[in-house]
Write a structure and sequence with these properties.
9 strands; Alpha-D-Glucose-1,6-Bisphosphate, Chain A, domain 4; alpha+beta; nine-stranded antiparallel beta sheet; single chain
Length: about 180
């Protein structure tokens, strides 16, 4: 019985400790004021400084977020992506997010600008849709990433937009964790 308990604890710790990225977990919730928070979390087997490079360096971003990407890391800067490697960052299919603020190695806040893939109604109503990305050190070689999207509108079109980002954010962050699976 004691051996079984010890084995279960060891297996649980192995899932989040050295050598493996943790699976992306959807921890979304509704705030005390009734606002939706689309939240996903995971742990990477990297220091906080190393993890930050995957959010602030074009070459590292290309490994997981999109094949065409550029970040102008500064308050008032942008993160621009295009999922079609045959298109440019200036093509109308590109997605541009304004950088509201950042703290090196700790925080990145993006204003999500909805493109023509979303209804005109949602684009016109969007004022506050943001993604807040936080990096928390677990230890010297592991970092927890928490991505929270806030500022959702109300109605059927917004529900579809929310569901799009649930699928998209989980998929995108899973692409990042795949870089470290089994390493």
């Amino acid at each position: 019985m004691i051996k079984t308990a010890i084995l279960l604890i060891a297996l649980s710790l192995a899932a989040i400790m050295p050598g493996n990225a943790q699976d992306v977990t959807n921890t979304s919730y509704v705030s005390a004021t009734g606002e939706k928070v689309l939240r996903v979390e995971f742990i990477l087997p990297l220091s906080q400084t190393e993890t930050w490079q995957y959010f602030s360096n074009d070459d590292k971003l290309k490994l997981w977020i999109a094949p065409v990407v550029h970040v102008d890391l500064r308050a008032g800067g942008t993160l621009v992506t295009n999922y079609d490697k045959g298109k440019s960052l200036t093509d109308k299919s590109a997605i541009s997010s304004d950088i509201i603020n950042y703290i090196d190695n700790e925080l990145l806040t993006l204003k999500v600008n909805l493109n023509d893939n979303f209804t005109k109604k949602v684009q016109d109503e969007d004022q506050n849709l943001q993604e807040v990305i936080q990096l928390f050190p677990v230890d010297k070689t592991h970092t927890k990433i928490v991505s929270s999207m806030i500022g959702w509108g109300k109605g059927a079109d917004w529900e579809k937009t929310y569901e799009f980002f649930v699928r998209g954010n989980i998929y995108t962050y899973e692409e990042l964790t795949k870089l470290f699976k089994g390493k």
